Amino acid sequence: MRLALPFRLTAVSLTLSLVACGIMPDMPSFKFTNTEGLPETAVANMMPTEGNQVSGTIKFVSKGNDTLVDISIRNLSPGAHGIHIHERGDCSAPDGLSAGAHFNPTGTPHGGMDGPHHLGDLGNIVAGADGTVILNFHVKDLNLSGEPNITGRAVIIHSGADDMKTQPTGNSGKRLACGVITRS
Question: Which portions of the chain are predicted below pLDDT 50?
Answer without folding.
Answer: 1-34
